[in-house]
Amino acid sequence: MKRQNIRTLSLVVCTFTYLLIGAAVFDALESETEARRWEFLKSKCAVRPTEQPLPLPPSLYPTAGDDNNGIKCCFFCFLPKGVKANFVAKYNITPEDYHMIEIVITENKPHKAGPQWKFAGAFYFATVVLAMIGYGHSTPVTIGGKAFCMAYAMVGIPLGLVMFQSIGERLNKFASVVIRRAKKYLRCQQTEATEMNLMLATGLLSSVIITTGAAVFSRYEGWSYFDSFYYCFVTLTTIGFGDYVALQNDQALINKPGYVALSLVFILFGLAVVAASINLLVLRFMTMNAEDIRREEAEMQSSVDGLTTYECESTGKLLSCANLNYCSEIEEEDTSVCSCTCLGGNSFTTHEH
User: Would you say the pTM of this structure is higher than 0.70?
Assistant: First the structure.
């Protein structure tokens, strides 16, 4: 096995090992706190048989904010007080109940996917951190979890970048072999794979991955195909807005291990292919830049080829001659002889002013 292949395989193994370690640590640090928070919400929101459940308008969605317990608040916290007062008066609820509605709306969405910090969810979170996607769907709330997340990212992000880059190089090498054999089979005059060929190949592969992934996520998540395509593009370009996040419905992290594995493979392999495409684009740009520099240097060299500078031994003056025969064409009485030591010590004459 070639040394480059061994290096790539070693990086993959190290990265997956690092993800497993991160998932185990995040599980240990965050899962117990998550379970206590969920039990607290269920106990506070339990409805007695004689009571009617509070109506929850479907348009309420959390955006930002955080109280002292690490429980996020929805956007009503930042609206004018009149909105809150009107809502409380309309539904005849206390301010405490109103605040509890905010907490339930915010906290209920993540729990639809099941525990976010058990091993499957923690592994998914570690992958998102290492890939720099950062959906924001799940965040550590304990001090230990936040501290470990920062330390984990400092090591994991460079490791992930190197791994994706190495896999991208191997993919480009494999694509060049396939292109070369295809050209030989088609009896093309030029059988070598050009940069443009590789860019087209990786671009086509990236398109196939995104379109196929969009169909899969549309099927499992219930999104439209366009929304799924949008999610795949935002994910593989590491933009990670977080408005669409997979594995967040119907206890998917617990009940659909195959879908979880498929989502992780999509992220990791898709990012490797995108890295291959970016690697080619950067290489092409650097090649074009180097060609421009060489062209400018050649033009400058050609412009000074006819201009030669000599130093006169007697006067110390610099004499520039575009043609070495020019000095001998000056009339005898108007010249002074100067012995120049450059170019083999030949003597040249210069016009005396």
Answer: no
DSSP 262-327: HHHHHHHHHHHHHHHHHHHHHHHHHHHHHHHHHHHHHHHHHHHTT-EEEEBTTT--EEEESSTTTG
Domains and CATH numbers, the chain: 67-112 (no CATH), 114-312 (1.10.287.70)
Collapsing DSSP states into helix, strand and coil, what is residue 142? coil
233 SS3 class: helix
353 has a pLDDT exceeding 80: no
State the DSSP code for 227: H
Between the CA of residue 296 and those of 191, 289, 292, 301, 305, what are the distances in Å?
31, 11, 6, 9, 14
| pLDDT tens digits, 10-21 | 989 999 999 999
Q: Residue 153 pLDDT more than 80? A: yes
Rounded to whole angstroms, the Cα distance separating 168 from 8 reads 10
d(CA 267, CA 270) in angstroms, rounded, equals 5
Task: Give the pLDDT score at 4.
Answer: 79
Q: Scan for tokens 């996040």, then name that residue.
A: 245
Q: How far apart, in whole angstroms, are the C-alpha atoms of residue 249 and residue 114?
A: 8
Token pair in block for residue 98? 């109103």
Check residue 24 and give its pLDDT.
94
